[in-house]
Amino acid sequence: MQIANKRIGLDSKPYIIAEMSGNHNQSIEKALEIIKVAASCGADAVKLQTYTADTITIDHRGGLFDIQDKSSLWSGRNLYDLYQEAHTPWEWHKALFECAKDNGIHIFSTPFDDAAVDLLEDLGAPAHKVASFENNHHPLLKKIASTGKPVIMSTGVSTLANLSESVDVLLSRGTSELCLLKCTSNYPSSPENTNLRTIPHLRELFDSEVGLSDHTFGIGAPVAAVALGATVIEKHFCLDRSEGGVDSAFSLEPDELKALVIETERAWQALGKVQYGIQKSEEKSKLFKRSIYVVKDIKEGEKFSPENIRVIRPGDGLAPKYYEEILGRSSPKNLKRGTPLHFDAI
Question: What is the domain extent for residue 180?
Answer without folding.
Answer: 10-51+87-271
